[in-house]
Amino acid sequence: MVLHILNRSPFASRVHEDMLRAMVNEDRVLLIEDGVSAALKAGITLLPTIDERLYALKEDLEARGLSQRCDPCVNIVDVDGFVALTEQADKVVSWF
Amino acid sequence: MANAIDRYITVAAHEVALDPEGYLVNLNDWSPEVAQALAGEEGRELTEAHWEIIWLLRDFYTRYELAPAMRPLIKAVKQTLGEEKGRSIYLMTLFPESPPKVAARLAGLPKPTNCL
Amino acid sequence: MTSKRILIVLRHAPHGSSWSREGLEAALVGAALGQEVSLLFMGDGVFTLCSEQQVGALGQKGTAPMIDVLPMYDIERLCVDEQALIARGLETKDLMVAIEYVDPAELIAEHDIVLTF
Question: Domains of chain A (ranges plus CATH)?
Answer without folding.
Answer: 2-95 (3.40.1260.10)
